[in-house]
C-alpha cells in the first residue's frame, strides 16, 4: 500500500529527480515557459511556485535559499528583481499547465508549463503587397 507516500518517482532515483527538477525550474524561470511531459510538468509546478514565492521576499535568507536550488546567479537575480515584483500582489498560482496532446514517437502526453503573464505571442503574418506600376 502507498499510504502517505508523497510525490511521484518519475522512474528516477531521488538525486536524479532533484537534479532534473532544479534544471527544469531554472529553465522555466529563465525562459518563462517549458515544453515537457505532463507528469513532469505536474511535479515541477509546486517546486517552481515555491521558488517564485521566495522571490517575493526581498531578504538575504530567501536569496540564499533560492541559490541552493537554482545554481545560476543571473536567474536568481531575475527571480528577485523581475518575477518577484510581477507576482508581489498575487497570493499563489503563478504557473499554468496547458496540455498539448500526445508525442508522435511514443504517445506520451505532452504539456506546456508557463508562468502567467508570459503567454505565447501569436506570430505576425507578413503580407506581401503587390505593387502594380
Overall body shape: globular
The helix fraction, in percent, is: 40-55%
By secondary-structure content and strand pairing, the structural class works out as alpha+beta
Question: How many β-strand stretches?
Answer: 3
The stretches of 5 or more residues where confidence is low (pLDDT under 50) are: none
Determine the CATH superfamily.
Answer: Ribosomal protein L17
In N-to-C order, the SSE pattern is HEHHHEE
Average pLDDT figure: 90
**CATH class descriptor name:** Alpha Beta
Q: Please, how many helices?
A: 4
| Gyration radius from CA atoms, angstroms | 19 Å
How many structural domains can be distinguished in the coordinates?
1
Q: Examine the coordinates and then state which fold CATH places here, giving the name of the CATH topology.
A: 50s Ribosomal Protein L17, Chain: A
User: For the largest beta sheet, what order do the strands appear in spatially?
Assistant: 1-3-2
Strand content: 15-25%
First CA to last CA: what distance? 80 Å
Q: What is the CATH architecture annotation?
A: Alpha-Beta Complex
Tell me about the biggest sheet?
Answer: 3 strands, antiparallel
3D structure, described in words:
This protein starts with 13 loop residues before the first helix and ends in an 18-residue tail after the last strand. Helix 2 crosses helix 4 (73-86). It is 46% helix and 15% strand. It has a 3-stranded antiparallel beta sheet. A hairpin with a 6-residue loop joins strand 2 and strand 3 (109-115). By secondary structure, the protein is α+β, with helices and mostly antiparallel strands. The mean pLDDT is 90.
Amino acid at each position: 500500500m502507498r499510504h502517505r507516500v508523497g510525490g511521484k518517482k518519475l522512474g528516477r532515483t531521488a538525486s536524479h529527480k532533484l537534479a532534473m527538477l532544479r534544471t527544469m525550474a531554472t529553465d522555466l524561470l529563465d525562459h518563462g515557459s517549458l515544453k515537457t511531459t505532463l507528469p513532469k510538468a505536474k511535479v515541477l509546478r509546486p517546486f517552481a511556485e515555491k521558488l517564485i514565492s521566495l522571490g517575493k521576499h526581498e531578504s538575504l535568507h530567501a536569496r540564499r535559499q533560492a541559490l541552493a536550488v537554482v545554481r545560476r546567479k543571473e536567474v536568481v537575480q531575475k527571480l528577485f528583481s523581475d518575477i518577484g515584483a510581477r507576482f508581489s500582489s498575487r497570493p499563489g498560482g503563478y504557473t499554468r499547465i496547458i496540455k498539448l496532446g500526445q508525442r508522435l514517437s511514443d504517445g506520451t502526453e505532452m504539456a506546456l508549463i508557463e508562468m502567467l503573464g508570459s503567454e505565447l505571442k501569436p506570430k505576425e503574418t507578413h503580407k506581401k503587397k503587390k505593387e502594380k506600376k
